[in-house]
Amino acid sequence: MLGFLIRRIIQSIFVMLAVALIAFMMFRFMGDPVNSMVAETATTEEREAVRERLGLDQPLWVQYGRFVARAAQGDFGLSWRNARPVSTLLAERFPATAELVLVAAGLSLLVGIPLGILTALKPGSLSAQTLQFVSLIGISLPTFVTGILLILVFSVWLNWLPSFGRGTVVDIGWWSTGFLTVSGLKALILPSVMLCLFQLTLIMRLVRAEMMEVLRTDYIKFARARGLPNRSIHFRHALKNTLIPVITIFGLQLGGLIAFAIITETVFQWPGMGALFIQAVSFGDVPVMAAYLVLVSLIFVVINTSVDLLYAVLDPRLRADAARAAH
Amino acid sequence: MADTTFHRALDSDLFWSFRKSWTARVSSLVLLVLFGAAIFAPWLATQNPYDISQLFLLDSELPPMWIDGGDPRYILGTDQQARDLYSAILYGLRLSLVVGFASVALAAALGITLGLLGGFLGGIVDAAIMRVADILLSFPAILVALLVNGIARGVLPPDQHADAAIWVLILAIGLTNWVQYARTVRGSTMVERQKEYVQAARINGVSGSGIMIQHILPNVLGPVLVIATINLGMAVLTEATLSFLGVGMPATQPSLGTLIRIGNEYLFSGIWWVVIFPSVVLVVLVLAVNLLGDWLRDALNPKLR
After folding, report:
1. What is the value of ipTM here, to two decimals?
2. How many domains does chain A have?
3. B45 CB near a chain A CB, below 8 Å?
4. B240-292: per-residue pLDDT in tens?
5. Nearest to B99, CA basis, from B298, B300, B301, B285
6. Is residue A115 domain-shared with residue A229, that is, in the same domain?
7. Domain limit, last residue, from A44, A72, A100
8. Domain carrying residue A221
9. Do residue A282 and residue B147 have CB atoms under 8 angstroms apart?
10. Are both A47 and A181 inside the same structural domain?
11. I need a surface site. Which of A49, A63, A275, A277 has the fewest CB within 10 A?
């Protein structure tokens, strides 16, 4: 188990170093930072002085090492577009994205798992078939089209919910939350529904497939033979084994939610990190792009690693496999 | 010769499965219509949406012709710049499909080459390719595509962004999607490499590249077709998403995604048609490609027969 843990962590560190290398290359080869720091009339000597002061005359691997050291402390320099520290920009935007992603993830679990169980227990019923069909549409619709349709129906035609922004937010320290006001909560509804829809259908389908598989196994047959009530068989015995793969997929998809939040934030003009990233992409603002890339990768790597470890804790078979593979 | 090939095609399992599946028939019919519309767009369209001299500002924001205030010259209505929506959708569909096909071709070429190399050579080459593939695969495609897009934009001078947009998109989507091809081709190459015909070729003194291209490649291409079909749907969707986000095709040369973005900006003025019609075309296109891909995957999978 310890060997597995160490191997997994070393692997994660390599991934992060690779991502940092990409970020570093972006800095190094997209535009000459010296040009933006000196006057246009500067002489070659003045340019060289700036180059030396910035450490750009040193070998690439030294520069890379310094870049990693600074990135590890969260220092990505100034945004090229609005000349503010990138770390401040990201910190301002982080709460909006985090709240959106958390609510969407929660919704997809709270709705997806019960619907999956329902469709697995009564596969032929009308409600189950309707749900299957609706979920097919849910998977096929591009997310931004879903978002536009939601706005068209609930904001333009019915005028029930706001179509942009976070509503009124309350600042708690550096964290600004929309959870504490009515308008903040109302503003969360449409974006989080849009964001969770794809994942919800995925979880529903997964739970359904796993549950049907588990219900066919011997231990469930034994439980039935022992005369246990259905409720106990379904929810105490079957559900437990169903949820293991759900945890993995959910973890992996959590990263996907952060990426897809880029689209949601654009549709709903949500002031999060994704919207910041899109602006950076369209202006070629390297420091913001690089910092976003490193931050999101870090989140991904942490999630993926913890899911793998959690999986090993939950499923003893995997531990045995890992031990065997190590020898 | 051609005659017998034709009869063999009619007799094949694939064709039989095609006739049996109504989703395959409907979706291929839909695709045929959409591809035809894209290819013949200049003849089917009533105006050239790229030509500003053909736009009459007085005709802007007209609703579809069957609604009060609509004009029979503009079947699906017009947008804010008085562009005929029907013509703009035809041209947009054309652009979306061009980007889709080109990026699938790029991804397939890249993936097949790297997969063959990795599977045939093994060792450090293989390890390096697969490591990169693993890392790429652990990130959502849209994020990678956005990143490539952003880097290209940073490298190119701003005044060339609009002209280069289509190439940047093809590059971004192609570089994102090669992993699946590489993994599949690598897997089958490793199996094929062990077979006797490869050993025979080796004994005959055929060079490594000769064996890879002439002997192994034809035998590993089957699954690539399925991946390419499913990938086309993904590629079209990614293009639309990037254009919708404002980092794809510019408003002067709108693809379906750009049209949806333009429509989205005016959603609140009640002009719903600019956003709805391109969305419908996009959804129908992607759905048809996906259904056809699903059918193809099942039909070519001998385990399911």
Report:
1. 0.75
2. 2
3. no
4. 988 888 888 887 788 888 888 888 888 777 777 778 888 888 988 888 888 88
5. B285
6. yes
7. A72
8. 89-326
9. no
10. no
11. A49
